[in-house]
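[User]
Protein folding is very new to me. Any chance you could explain this protein sequence and its structure tokens? I have pasted everything here:
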Amino acid sequence: MSAAAATSPADLLPRQRVAQQDLRHPRTARVNTLKLGVQQAVKQLRAAPATAAVKVDPLLPDVLVLPAGTDMHDHSLVVDGSLVLQVGCTRHAVKHPAMHCAAAGLEGGGPTITRTA
């Protein structure tokens, strides 16, 4: 800390803090295409004010992106299994000849790979 002329860890923090909203990751949900189409899911989510800002992820066409803090746990599409909430903020697409796409992330507290239709 002496190299930065700091006397405590707090001295190393920037003077102006970034708003908490900017530091949060968006809520993501994968569409279970065996139960519902992506455009159908988007249409249903946009019908409700709380989820009207839904967008399709530009890299993963079956992943929907909602603003950070959007509570989807009791949403009917999540309850019936049409949407699967993504827990981790990392999303990767892995192409494989045997499957359409696999989304790898931190689901359920550990690394998983989810096969999609």
Notes: The radius of gyration is 19 Å. The beta strands are 27-31, 55-56, 63-66, 83-86, 92-96, 99-107, 110-115. Residues 18-22, 89-108 have pLDDT under 50 and may be disordered. The chain has one domain: 24-115.
